[in-house]
Amino acid sequence: METTFTWEIKVKNCPLLIKKCSHCDSDRFYCSDKFRMNAQKKNIDVWLIYRCVKCDNTCNLTLVSRSKPDLIDKSLFHSFSVNDKEAAWQYAFSAELERKNNMKLDYGSVEYEVISSISPEDIQNLSDEVISIRIKCDFDFNLKLSSLVRRCLSLSANQVKRLFEQNVISTSASQSLQKQKVKNGDVILIDREQLTKSLKEIAR
Helices in 55-191 by DSSP H: which ranges? Predict the structure, then answer.
């Protein structure tokens, strides 16, 4: 028998942009959640505006370059026009945008919370042989699966490593669990009996 629960990851901010400021000694810029649009003749350019965390100096990241307005999706064009925050965050977390602008993002600056439908105590008290936990995450920010498990189960890094090695906690991915990054839709499988047994041994 298998029961599926959810760990929903809610980010609180966008990753900072790692870039040397030309006006001060800072090397971090934050996403302003605003776009800049500039029309020249029949073409349009669109940028996402970043600001220095110290002096507020601006840095613009290219989103659209020399494009015909009618080639841009109408809903997206509207998002640019009204400075839609959701659209800005989609770009701020975009690995494609990171590559396109030859920039580097500080994913370690992203703060998040996890909304869990089950507690560590609940897991141990269930009768199911296998506990299935599906991850919901709107943005990828290089969060390690091991870090998420450690946080949600209140375990140490060594404890999580041991549980991974013993296959008490597993996923369907072929990649090493220690190196695996969290992706939306990932499913974590927990052997409830073995987890309870391991946690009792750890507590001794």
Answer: 74-81, 85-92, 95-100, 120-125, 145-153, 157-165
The model's pLDDT over 39-67, given as tens digits with 9 standing for 90+, comes to 887 899 999 999 999 999 999 999 999 89
Which of 14, 109, 97 is closest to 60 using CA atoms?
97
CA distance 174 to 166: 16
Q: Which domain holds residue 57?
A: 20-102
pLDDT above 90: residue 100: no
Instruction: Compute the C-alpha angle 61/63/64, nearest 5°.
Output: 130
Residues 68, 87 within the same domain: yes
Kindly state whether residues 48 and 125 are assigned to the same domain: no
The pTM for the full model equals 0.85
Residues facing residue 67 across a β-bridge = 44
What's the pLDDT tens digit per position in 122-173?
A: 887 888 788 899 999 999 999 999 999 999 988 888 989 989 888 899 887 6
Statement to judge: residues 199 and 115 lie in one domain: yes
Phi, psi of 203 (to 5 degrees): -75, -15
Residue 70, burial from CB neighbour count under 10 angstroms (0-12, 13-18, 19+): exposed
